[in-house]
Design a protein that fits this description.
Blueprint lengths: L17 H11 L1 H9 L12 E5 L2 E4 L4 E2 L1 H14 L3 E7 L4 E6 H17 L7 E5 L4 H13 L2 E4 L6 H11 L3 E5 L1 E3 L4 E3 L1 H10 L6 E5 L13 E3 H5 L10 E2 L3 E7 L7 E6 L1 H13 L8 E4 L6 H13 L3 E5 L11 H8 L4 E4 L1 H10 L16 E4 L6 H11 L3 E3 L11 E2 L16 E2 L4 E5 L12 E6 L14 H9 L5 E10 L5 E6 L3 E4 L2 E4 H9 L4 E11 L3 E10 L7 H15 L8 E4 L13 H8 L13 H11 L4
Parallel strand pairs: 4-17, 6-7, 6-8, 8-11, 11-12, 16-17, 16-18, 18-19, 19-20, 30-31
Antiparallel strand pairs: 1-2, 3-13, 4-5, 9-10, 14-15, 21-22, 23-24, 24-25, 25-26, 27-28, 29-30
Helix pairs in contact: 1-2, 3-4, 3-5, 3-10, 4-5, 6-7, 9-10, 12-13, 17-18
The structure holds coenzyme A and adenosine monophosphate.
The site of adenosine monophosphate (AMP) has 20 residues, from strand 25 and strand 26.
């Protein structure tokens, strides 16, 4: 064990026994607990009821509360006299610019863009798709939607046109807000052609597209449909905050499921705001005027919650960083940003640290910067391997806080509650369940397993505020995906165990989702692309361990009999198809053409066994295997030298 002692009091004035007591109260009296937390926000109409259990398993938080999330993130602080405090610092090594927005400036920009959206006919409840890189306009567009009660759906820039089209068809946006391009380390990525192709493919057509023109690659506009950001805001009247029901959706964020059809995770307004606000002081230990640097992307849930909403709800300063951990310009980039902006709380994915460590194994660049303001490093998005945990802690000299969560939950399920009570940390564990999350590890019959034993990680309902109330337009899929395996519980899809001290260990997904450089991807979606190739008879995609990205996908295909195709050519075409159809972020670089795939006697491909062999595990031959010779023949392909 390492880290902080569990004695003493925190700067919140809470005593050392606080985690356990707080946790117990959150589970035994969720309404009392979250009702109190809700008082930290401004409400047009404060909630009379905290938890609506009338439509189980569809629980709703603050059913009669009325608020506006943008008001709480911006206007509230300006009205309280903090208008001159820095709200957002845009730091962009790829364009060589740094710009600070005070709370007043950000409120004014957001109000004006909300006015522009209003001029385009956007109303409360309408959807707006945002397809933008890490520029302040992305956050401004999100907050402008929140201001109007419109529902944003941000699509990560690394996705291809088809993925964008699928999301447009599901969310049916009135307007799309996009940038003309994104800037990667070695290339400019034009976004507009991808947007045009997506709208061409989608059945739903947005009325308008607002294009933020960037000088690196200005876009051509479609007459009558497109207008520039500048033209949209020119002359727009600032829009006021619209009162919305706490249960109204704030956003939809699509995430990978086990098939090619992404899941539209719905986030409500009131529950989310209350949960994030609570998390800033109790987990992230970051308050008004303190600086949080979350190096992620607004296209992911970590970006939604801890680049945009949570720091602003707390009155803190958020750093929006358009760059990478390495290459912009070097492995000292994070330390430069942290020093320059006096960052207290750094939050990123372990893969970013592995990338830094690869380029600067001794962490020598850290010494070039004054990191005296840094108090903690939070890491999430994938399993934190003990080596990266140790390296980061030793080099930075601050506690390294692993925290486990999902797009669906919106905020951490397990973490070390730094503001509530700093607990000792243990390598390999994101520490303990966060108050509100009744986490259980169960066997296949749904019975709790003893400490130390592995099982499926589930959360007893109701989920706390902030978590998904449903999937967009699809209550049935919500229930089928998450609530039907273990009635009364939410299935996380992760497996793991508790230790005797109540620390949770999250060992990995039990389904076909993989995690590549902190990005969640579906092997099922990649298989759908491979299977569409005319020469492919059958295929499998598995995630294999990778020293930098945590996991990378590998594809295996069997060609149709009698097809005269060159295996290497097919493999190259398949790699290109996945990049073209899903996007560069899928990072599928290796496809092997093989004579057959190992299967059970009932015809199920033995993906887990294949993955185990590729990762070098002593994988037993399953008793259900149809033909062991097929597996034996595949071993040297899966793991050369085996
Ligand atoms: N727009 C367009 N393309 C993008 C993109 C974006 N927003 N983000 C990534 N891509 C592209 C990359 O350029 C790369 O393209 P390439 O195949 O032509 O090189 C491809 O998608 C894969 O990107 P990535 O997996 O990010 O790999 P990388 O080698 O570019 O960078 C890391 C590796 C570790 C530096 C990078 O993944 C990183 O910083 N990760 C942090 C993790 C993170 O933010 N996770 C979010 C959850 S916390
Ligand atoms: P996403 O929805 O993109 O946030 O991905 C969620 C998935 O990432 C989880 O279901 C886990 O499999 C994985 N994950 C996220 N954080 C952690 C963590 N701290 N430890 C282990 N796995 C994690």
């Amino acid at each position: 064990m390492n880290g902080t002692s569990s004695t003493g009091s925190t700067r919140n004035g809470t005593s050392s026994t606080n985690y356990r007591e707080t946790y117990e109260r959150s589970i035994t009296d969720p309404a009392g607990f979250w009702g109190e937390a809700a008082k930290g926000l401004d409400w047009f109409s404060p909630p009379g009821r905290v938890l609506d259990r009338d439509r189980e398993p569809f629980y709703r938080w603050f059913p009669d509360g009325v608020l506006n999330v943008c008001h709480n993130a911006l206007d509230r602080h300006v009205e309280a006299g903090a208008g001159d405090r820095a709200a957002l610092i845009y730091d962009s090594p790829v364009t060589g610019s740094v710009r600070t927005y005070t709370y007043r400036e950000l409120r004014d920009e957001v109000a004006r863009f909300a006015g522009a959206l209003k001029n385009l006919g956007v109303e409360c409840g309408d959807r707006v798709v945002v397809y933008m890189p890490m520029v302040p306009e992305a956050a401004i567009a999100m907050l402008a939607c929140a201001r109007l009660g419109a529902v944003h759906s941000v699509v990560f820039g690394g996705f291809a046109a088809h993925e964008l089209a699928v999301r447009i068809d599901d969310a049916k946006p009135a307007v799309v807000v996009a940038a003309s391009c994104g800037i990667e380390v070695s290339r400019v990525v034009p976004y507009k052609p991808l947007l045009d192709a997506a709208i061409e493919e989608s059945a739903h057509k947005p009325r308008h597209c607002v294009i933020f023109q960037r000088p690196q690659c200005p876009a051509d506009l479609v007459e009558g449909r497109d207008l520039t950001w500048d033209d949209a805001v020119a002359g727009a009247e600032p829009a006021e905050c619209v009162p919305v029901a706490a249960t109204d959706p704030l956003y939809i964020l699509y995430t990978s499921g086990t098939t090619g059809r992404p899941k539209g995770v719905v986030r409500d307004s009131g529950g989310y705001a209350v949960a994030l606000h609570w998390s800033m002081s109790n987990i992230f230990d970051t308050g008004p005027g303190e600086v949080m640097f979350t190096a992620s992307d607004v296209g992911w849930v970590v970006g939604h919650s801890y680049i945009v909403y949570a720091p602003l709800l707390a009155g803190a300063t958020t750093v929006l960083y358009e760059g990478k951990p390495v290459g912009t310009p070097d492995a000292g980039a994070f330390w430069r940003v942290a020093a320059q902006h006096r960052v207290r709380t750094l939050f990123t994915a372990p893969t970013a640290f592995r990338a830094i460590k690869k380029e600067d194994p001794q962490g020598t660049r850290i010494a070039d910067h004054d990191l005296s303001n840094l108090r903690h490093l939070f890491l999430a998005g994938e399993r934190l391997d003990p080596e990266t945990y140790a390296w980061a802690g030793e080099r930075l000299g601050v506690p390294v806080i692993d925290n486990w969560w999902q797009t669906e939950t919106g905020w951490p399920i397990a973490a070390n509650p730094r503001g509530l009570e700093p607990l000792p940390t243990k390598p390999g564990s994101p520490s303990v369940p966060v108050p509100g999350f009744d986490v259980r590890v169960v066997d296949s019959a749904g019975n709790d397993v003893p400490a130390g034993a592995d099982g499926a990680i589930v959360i007893r309902l109701p989920l706390p505020p902030g978590c998904l109330p449903t999937l967009w337009g699809d209550d049935e899929r919500f229930v089928a995906s998450y609530l039907s395996a273990f009635p009364g519980h939410y299935l996380t899809g992760d497996g793991g165990r508790f230790d005797a001290d109540g620390y949770l260990y999250v060992m990995g997904r039990t389904d076909d989702i993989i995690n590549v450089a902190g990005h969640r991807l579906s092997t099922g979606a990649m298989e759908e692309v491979l299977a569409a190739h005319p020469a492919v008879a059958e295929c499998a995609v598995i995630g294999v361990a990778d020293g930098l990205k945590g996991q990378v996908p590998r594809g295996f295909v069997v060609l149709k009999a009698g097809i005269d195709a060159v295996p290497d050519t097919v493999a190259a075409e398949l790699v290109a198809m996945v990049r073209d159809r899903i996007g560069p972020v899928a990072a599928l670089r290796q496809v092997d053409v093989v004579p057959a795939l190992p299967k059970t006697r009932s015809g199920k491909i033995l993906r887990r066994t294949m993955r185990g062999i590729a990762d070098g595990a002593a994988e037993p031959v399953p008793s259900t295997i149809d033909d062991p010779a097929v597996l034996d023949a595949l071993r040297p392909v899966l793991r050369p030298g085996s």
